[in-house]
Structure formats: structure tokens, C-alpha cells
Write a structure and sequence with these properties.
Blueprint lengths: L16 H18 L3 E2 L5 E3 H8 L4 H6 L1 E4 L5 E4 L4 H10 L9 E10 L11 E10 L4 H17 L6 E6 L6 H12 L6 H9 L10 H6 L12 H17 L4 E2 L11 E8 L8 E7 L3 H4 L7 E7 H11 L8 E5 L2 H16 L4 E3 L6 H11 L3 E5 L1 H6 L1 E6 L5 E5 L3 H18 L1
Parallel strand pairs: 1-5, 7-8, 12-13, 12-14
Antiparallel strand pairs: 2-4, 3-4, 5-6, 6-11, 7-9, 9-10, 10-11, 14-15, 15-16
Helix pairs in contact: 1-5, 1-11, 5-9
Bound molecules: histidyl-adenosine monophosphate.
Histidyl-adenosine monophosphate binds next to strand 6, strand 10, strand 11 and helix 11.
Length: about 425
């Protein structure tokens, strides 16, 4: 391995992916703002205890995956493995509970987990997360899921699946845990699950080891153990989703890998990314603020995995930043005309590329093809004389002439293309 390379599980992000990333961020910021969320900037490093306390000692994140070190002052420091704990800490520390409820925040940034890297599973990855405090109603859960649905619709990400569950509360979960302990007590679980059986049997439902996946068939289902208030909450959410026409699937195995959750849990998954299916995930955490020393404050949130989402979008749109017009100018004079046209088009938000005029036509066509330009505009001495350029549509080789003095004709050409695209959808 070259000494000058990124660490295992850590990626650079560069074009064209960065184009998708920016689109994701812009879409999130615009949409979340409409839903009343403000951006919050939380530190990348925190006291280790922030995470051990909230995420839970028995979780994989705390047990195996945290980047933890002692700083020069002897303090235990951890690179954040997720954002919720920090936002809850910030909420309590800065008494944000005094603001008018509900208080809604979103954040975008890198997270760190020492996981075994594979496709879609990184050691440094980015999340866009959102947290809503001080509302306990199923309407708040439904509103959040509606916002997530809108977000993926705006990005035109197809074939996603929303899975929901309720993992109960302090009142009903102990009984469920007891039932799980009984169910698994004689089972030949993997080493980790043997520990989970003692510390937190719910975690067994999250285990990816084949043997444990097989063993949990027929295990008691949490929804049969919910207390009346949790049941009413969960049914309320299901009805609201149905009422809004948001498709969802009940999945009693969505118990999540973090201990702070109560009641609603959910994941948005895809079949297009291999083993790492979850593109977004979250749930309610009604006790966390109190555990950090704040007033009793219900809360719900979620986070989207940026790398997974960007990869998914790339699958459906491999050329996210392809230009509309590629000007293939042959000669210096043609190049000046092309530049002036391109500037006027860019002014109308129509992406245009002006290539070096010294390149032969064949080279231009190759480049335009690689860039996935929609049209090539060919401009040579003859064309300039006639005041006409030749356009060629790259997808079907259709071609025609266009008036180089009339930028409106170029705009009309781009509009025609967009109309055809729309009618193909
Ligand atoms: P999480 O399920 O651990 O939840 O992560 C949320 C999303 O981050 C996952 O669905 C996935 O898309 C992405 N992700 C997680 N780990 C990795 C990784 N190693 N590599 C690439 N992507 C990854 C949370 O982090 C909670 N804080 C979500 C939340 C917010 N719950 C309430 N509020």
C-alpha cells in the first residue's frame, strides 16, 4: 500500500460524486427548513461518556467500534460515532428546552466507527441527521416519516422500503426482555449473543450471524408485549401513515443497534446496495434528555447515510453533472462565438461546456460522449459564414441547424429535450 493513501474505510469524495452530495445537502436543507428544522453544529469530538451513557455499553458501537483516545490532559475522548447523543447533550447543556417547542434541529457531517469496512460500510461516513424534541405524539412521528418520504421523492430515489416497529418503553420492555431470555436460554447462540442474552437480549434480534438469524425464527414478537399507551401510539402512527398514503411494512426485528430508543423505530432500506441495506434509520428516544440531566423531554430523530444514498442515486443516474451543450468549435473565431453563446446559456442555468478549439472534431465527439453531453454544437468556418451551427443530439444522433445569433433557439432545444424526458418518465 502506498504510504500516501487514505486510511482503510475512509474515502475521498470528488466529482462527479460531489455533485450528488451537494444536491443531497441542498435538498435536505431546503426541505428540512420548510418542516421547521434549523441547522445545529455539534463537535466531532466529545467526552467518551456522552456515547457510552446514551448508546449503551452492550451495543457494538460502544463495545467495539468507537475511536477513543486519551488526550494530553488525560481525558477520555471519542470521535463521534453518531449525532443524536451530541445533539441531546447540546440541548441540555444550552437549555434549548427553554425555546418554544417543538425544537427541531438537523446536522450534516462525518461520523466515525471502527467497523470492518465493506461496500456501504465505512469507518468515516457522513450522515444528515434530524432531531425533534418536546413532542410525544404519533403525529410527530408521522410528520418525520412524511418529511423523509418527501426528501427521497425530491431526489427521485426509487424502490425504497419503509419498515417500522415499536420497541416499547420502560414499562413493557422488561417483560419482553424476559420472554426473549426464556426463548433463547437453551439456544446455541454466537459468542456475542451469549453476552447479549445476559446484558440486553433485544440485541440478539439485530445479530447478523447466520446461526442467530436462524435461531430467532419463532422468537416472541415485541408488538405482542406493548403496554396500552405504547400500543395506542404505534397504532396511531400506522393509521396516520395509511391516511397519508405512505407505504410501510411492519417489521418486529427493527430493534436498532443503539440503546436509547423507545417506542417507534424505523429504517428506510433498498435492495440495490447489497448487504448494507439501510439508507436512513431512526426512532424515538423519550428518555435520553433526562438521562443527560435535562427535564423529561420526548424526542424522535433519524439519520441518512450519505455514502449509501449517493451510491444509490448514482446507480439510477450515472451522469449526474453531464452538461446540456458541448460546444465543439473548430478554429479561433468559432471558439469566440461558442464562448459568447455558452455564457448566455449558463446565465439561463443551462450547463454548457466550451472545449479547446485546437482539438479535432473526432476528439470533441469523444469528449462529449464521455461527459454524456446532451447536445454537441458544431461550429466551423462554414457555419460561421452561414450564421448557423450544426447540433447533434448524442442519445439518438438526430441533428439539425441552429441560428448562432439566436440564443432563444438553443433554449428551445433544451426545453424540447426536457419535455421529451418528462414524457418518457
Ligand atoms: P444508525 O442506524 O447507526 O443510526 O445510522 C444511520 C444511517 O447511517 C444508517 O442507516 C446508514 O445509512 C448510515 N451508516 C451507519 N453506519 C455506517 C457506516 N459504517 N458506513 C456507512 N454508512 C453508515 C444513527 O446513527 C442514529 N443516530 C440515527 C438517529 C437519529 N436516531 C435518532 N436520531
Amino acid at each position: 500500500m502506498n504510504a500516501y493513501s487514505t486510511l482503510k474505510g475512509v474515502h475521498d469524495i470528488f466529482p462527479p460524486d460531489v455533485f450528488i452530495w451537494n444536491k443531497i445537502e441542498r435538498t435536505a436543507k431546503d426541505l428540512f427548513y420548510i418542516f421547521g428544522y434549523d441547522e445545529i453544529k455539534i463537535p466531532i469530538i466529545e467526552s467518551t461518556e456522552i456515547f457510552t451513557r446514551s448508546i449503551g455499553q452492550s451495543t457494538d458501537i460502544v463495545g467495539k467500534e468507537m475511536y477513543t483516545f486519551t488526550d494530553k490532559g488525560g481525558r477520555g475522548i471519542t470521535l463521534r460515532p453518531e449525532g443524536t447523543a451530541s445533539v441531546a447533550r447540546c440541548y441540555v447543556e444550552n437549555a434549548l428546552y427553554r425555546c418554544t417547542p417543538p425544537q427541531k434541529y438537523y446536522y450534516i457531517g462525518p461520523m466515525f466507527r471502527y467497523e470492518r469496512p465493506q461496500k456501504g460500510r465505512l469507518r468515516q461516513f457522513y450522515q444528515i441527521g434530524a432531531e425533534c424534541f418536546a413532542s410525544s405524539t404519533p403525529e410527530t412521528d408521522a410528520e418525520m416519516l412524511f418529511m423523509i418520504n418527501e426528501f427521497f421523492n425530491k431526489l427521485q430515489v426509487p424502490e425504497l422500503r419503509l419498515e417500522i416497529n415499536s420497541i416499547g418503553c420502560k414499562v413493557c420492555r422488561p417483560e419482553y426482555n424476559a420472554a426473549l431470555t426464556m426463548f433463547f436460554s437453551q439456544a446455541s447462540l454466537c459468542g456475542d449473543c451469549k453476552t447479549r442474552l445476559v446484558k440486553n437480549p433485544l440485541r440478539i434480534l439485530d445479530c447478523k450471524v447466520d446461526r442467530c438469524v436462524e435461531l430467532r425464527k419463532g422468537a416472541p414478537v415485541i408488538t405482542d408485549f406493548l403496554c396500552e399507551p405504547c400500543k395506542t401510539h404505534h397504532e396511531g402512527l400506522r393509521e396516520l401513515l395509511k391516511g397519508r398514503g405512505i407505504a410501510f411494512h411492519d417489521n418486529p426485528l427493527i430493534v436498532r443497534g443503539l440503546d436509547y430508543y423507545t417506542r417507534t423505530t424505523f429504517e428506510v432500506t433498498t435492495e440495490h446496495l447489497g448487504a448494507q441495506k439501510a439508507v436512513a434509520a431512526g426512532g424515538r428516544y423519550d428518555n435520553l434528555v433526562e438521562e443527560f440531566g435535562g427535564p423529561a423531554t420526548p424526542a424522535i430523530g433519524f439519520a441518512i447515510g450519505m455514502e449509501r444514498l449517493a451510491e444509490l442515486m448514482r446507480l439510477f443516474d450515472p451522469y449526474p453533472n453531464s452538461p446540456f451543450f458541448y460546444f465543439a468549435a473548430l478554429g479561433e473565431q468559432a471558439s469566440a462565438i461558442a464562448l459568447s453563446l455558452a455564457i448566455r446559456l449558463m446565465d439561463k442555468n443551462i450547463s454548457s461546456i466550451c472545449a479547446d478549439w485546437q482539438i479535432p472534431l473526432k476528439g470533441h465527439m469523444k469528449r462529449a460522449n464521455k461527459l454524456n453531453a446532451k447536445y454537441v454544437i458544431m461550429l466551423g468556418a462554414d457555419e460561421i459564414q452561414k450564421g448557423k451551427a450544426t447540433w447533434k443530439q448524442m442519445s439518438n444522433a438526430a441533428q439539425g441547424e441552429i441560428d448562432v445569433n439566436n440564443v432563444g433557439e438553443f433554449i428551445a432545444l433544451s426545453e424540447q429535450w426536457l419535455t421529451r424526458q418528462g414524457s418518457n418518465d
